[in-house]
TrEMBL record, chains A, B:
Pfam families: 3HCDH, 3HCDH_N. SUPFAM superfamilies: 6-phosphogluconate dehydrogenase C-terminal domain-like, NAD(P)-binding Rossmann-fold domains. InterPro entries: 3-OHacyl-CoA_DH (IPR022694), 3-OHacyl-CoA_DH_NAD-bd (IPR006176), 3HC_DH_C (IPR006108), 6-PGluconate_DH-like_C_sf (IPR008927), 6PGD_dom2 (IPR013328), NAD(P)-bd_dom_sf (IPR036291). The keyword Cytoplasm does not apply. This is 3-hydroxyacyl-CoA dehydrogenase. Keywords: Oxidoreductase.
Length: 311, 311
């Protein structure tokens, strides 16, 4: 898994770009960031240093040399010497295609171009590239310096493996898809669940805070330890998923038929906004985010200890 | 929240009944169990004692007096002095209705009758009862001595609150539904997610182990800390769910339209069984369950510490 340091360009430096910058530099890679909004260098460096402290806490790192972090004045300057380019622009196909044209014109010919896109596909993004063989979608879960998941797809199998190796070298859990799909895997799953979460509120079965509490103390908690497929392999009295499918498959299909297909009408949106406000109970978004990050950081440590205890 | 000890009858003592027995007795309640399969008392008591050790570890308890655990020869004997009856029979409406008839004939008139049903509704189960005002569905997440969630519904609002108070006194996170629904809240969410998890495998986007890894390191991990609704309130750059719905609601609706509606055909079932076998990589169900319980036990402790750190 050991790889030499990359020279990285971060194209688009909002929340995701800042978080990537912290992760990459904490692992010794030099980073040049560029954002069309020209973020002021000092507050940016402070935010990245804050995130890097979280990386060090999660990984127990601290002795290695951090990579350098530079704010470039132009995209061309950022990518000129890059070996790895991580693009985090807004989710617009024309905008990203235009950026890839500029990147291909200014970057070394063998630099990898990785997109953090959450909802666009490799095929639509790569369409106009001169060298699509070096293009990979590498979707992190927000914030990428805390959440382990990176979802990878490239048409070229060797690039898929190279990208998986690179993100794993950063302590990420990289997964490789067999083909590209809107929302990759994780956001497809999240969308499917949230559709029913909205439906439960819309149908008056339970309010927003109740739905969230049920998830966090039930299936969400379980899925932080085992996946959905594996969960049906377990918990059935030791008989496994084949037995589950044979005996309870039909009842799952009947339950699927009762799930809802809500629309985000103004009335339903108002219920969601009010419900989240009730659940937040006066806590600001910054406070809630800090509590979430604190919980996830400790849960990551707990999972690591559980794995070691089982070895 | 302090309540006096209940005298509890466990009707149906498979995995769920054993787990409830451990939780109830660990909290000082006397329990009489009855199961038509007449489980041999000694192995049952051993399994319950094993589960009770896990309860003590999670809750840091150990000094209080454990409740007594008796194996009754008949249902009538089990419920004769009960104040709380927890029914965990197979998911069959006629079977459960018949049991409720026998329970109503033999139990004290003010005993609460609680059903652990995962997929049947209060309305269909209560239909033939003489006193449905004392009937409540109280669905735990398996195994209930480890997983905090209990989902509660009764037509009578006072009983809903009484039941919530009782399960909270056992360290559970009880949530109260506004009306009954197939699968309550948690299994509706789990079914919605699993439908798409099956679809992703069926469409060849990713294999079983990849789907599970994406869930465990992405949305599952996140949902062990914050719910699905709250997750959309956060992570959008501090602008909250109203902003999210306005700007990204339409793209969620477009993604919903791309989700699949698979059937559990023999071909798809075979892909799931093979995929889970590959993911298990030779580990037995018992080993996988032990690893899951170890992870969840440590994650519960981590969440508790995170909450204390934030106070």
């Amino acid at each position: 898994m050991a790889q030499g340091p990359e020279t990285i360009a971060i194209i688009g430096c909002g929340l995701i770009g800042e978080s990537w910058s912290a992760l990459f530099t904490a692992h010794g890679h030099d980073v040049a960031v560029w954002d069309p909004a020209s973020p002021a260098a000092e507050p940016l460096l402070e935010r990245v240093e804050g995130a890097r402290r979280q990386v060090r806490r999660i990984e127990g790192r601290g002795t290695e040399r951090d990579g350098r972090l530079l704010v470039a004045r132009t995209l061309e300057e950022a990518v000129a010497a890059a070996t790895w380019i991580q693009e985090n622009a807004p989710e617009s196909v024309p905008l990203k295609r235009e950026l890839y044209g500029r990147i291909e014109g200014a970057a070394p010919p063998d630099a990898v171009i990785a997109s953090s896109t959450s909802s666009l596909t490799w095929s639509e993004l790569a369409r106009d590239m001169r060298h699509p063989g070096r293009f990979v979608t590498a979707h992190p879960f927000n914030p990428p310096h805390i959440m382990p998941l990176v979802e990878i797809y490239a048409r070229d199998a060797a690039l898929r493996e190279r990208a998986a190796g690179f993100y794993r070298s950063l302590g990420r859990e990289a997964v490789v898809l067999n083909r590209d799909a809107v929302g990759h895997v994780a956001n497809r799953l999240a969308s499917a669940l949230w559709r029913e979460a909205v439906n439960i509120v819309a149908e008056g079965i339970a309010d927003v805070a109740t739905v969230d509490a049920a998830l966090v103390n039930g299936p969400g908690l379980r899925w932080s330890a085992v996946g959905a497929h594996m969960a049906y392999h377990l918990g059935g009295g030791g008989e496994g998923i084949a037995h589950y499918l044979e005996h309870l498959g039909p009842s799952q299909e009947r339950r699927w038929a009762t799930l809802g297909s809500p629309s985000l009408t103004p009335e339903i949106c108002a219920m969601l906004v009010e419900g989240v406000a009730a659940e937040a109970a006066g806590r600001s978004i910054a406070e809630l985010e800090a509590a979430r990050d604190e919980a996830i950081t400790r849960i990551l440590a707990a999972r690591k200890e559980a794995r070691h205890a089982g070895e």
